[in-house]
UniProtKB/TrEMBL annotation:
SMART domains, A to Z: CXC
Name this protein carries in UniProt: CRC domain-containing protein
Organism annotation: Paramoeba aestuarina
Localisation per UniProt entry: Nucleus
Ranges of residues in domain CRC: 28-139
Amino acid sequence: ETQIHPAQAYVNETIGEEAARNLYHGAKPTECNCRSTNCIQLYCECFFQCRYCGSECTCKDCFNVPSRRDEIEQRVKKIAKRNRRAFIPTITADEAKKRHTGGCKCQKTACQKKYCPCFQSGLPCNSLCGCIGCKNTPGDVAQQKQQASEAKQNSQQLQHQNQFQKQPHLPSPQQLHQQELLQQQQQQQ
């Protein structure tokens, strides 16, 4: 029987098993490559996702394995004591309902800077946010994506035009005829 990760047990206890299952629904397992954290800090993607490191990970000196369950449990308790929502993802994994679960509290940036967790994630602000003067609404995000797409398209078109202009132009039939006449005249002389 597979043992449940201590962090997963903590999340289940904190928000309930059903809610925890929905948080991680559709989340793609990651492969960590931790070097100095022993995979028992939130920097470790596996540890943060409440799962043990696996054979696909390239981590060094890993403690995030079932045989070290007691040490992991102590670490989870220590982290949870400082931040009870530490193991709860801030962005829902479900693509259809993707949103920032904590919301933002931007006051001066209109949610247009990377300081805004919603903007940084490429998601619109939602009802959980307490932002002021928000310009990161679903319509704004769609418009930004459209503008980015158009800018990319325009850039590609300009690049294509520049390549075409750099290519040597072929002479017109009249120019070819004139060149032939010049060559004939030069040969006759």
